[in-house]
Design a protein that fits this description.
Length: about 160
């Protein structure tokens, strides 16, 4: 009878340890999307709001800071980098007032060098098949790009990477 008690205690202890390991593993594997901070630059307010609403439906606890102009976005990014505040993703449009999305992304990459950080940049565009955008993505300026007609699930998958 004593051996059975030891076995039961051993199995209960193993189950508790296994439960703890699974809990920790789940926390590690499950990207904590609640804390993701995203910057979205697009001069069309309706599009920005639509993206925000759509993303928040799937990822309800993320934070999205919106900008309609490059200068405000760049100032915010530089200040965040300077203060060691993490930016998890930058989303930009290609065409907007001031320098276009490609120039904006290049300016962000220069800020990254200055502050020794790296932030993924995703481009939303109507210019889906533009060769300069394909080349910019190959060169690492953009980490990905989507047509404005893209499905939400593809964008969510990109964000979770």
């Amino acid at each position: 009878m004593m051996n059975q008690n030891k076995i039961v205690k051993y199995q209960a202890g193993q189950l508790q340890r296994l439960s703890n390991v699974l809990s920790i593993t789940n926390k590690i594997l499950d990207i904590d999307l609640r804390k993701l901070f995203i910057i979205h630059l697009d001069d069309h307010s309706l599009f920005r709001k639509g993206v925000k609403i759509s993303l928040l439906k799937k990822l309800p606890n993320i934070q999205i800071k919106e900008f309609s102009r490059n200068d405000g976005a760049l100032e915010f990014i530089a200040s965040s980098y300077k203060d060691n505040k993490k930016i998890d993703l930058i989303i930009t449009d290609f065409n907007h007032p001031g320098p276009n999305g490609l120039i904006f992304a290049k300016e962000v990459r220069e800020l990254e060098k200055k502050f020794n950080v790296k932030t993924p940049i995703m481009l939303f565009t109507m210019r889906w098949e533009d060769s300069s955008l394909i080349e910019a993505t190959k060169a690492g300026i953009f980490d990905g790009y989507f047509p404005k007609s893209a499905e939400l699930d593809g964008i969510i998958s990109f964000i979770k990477k």
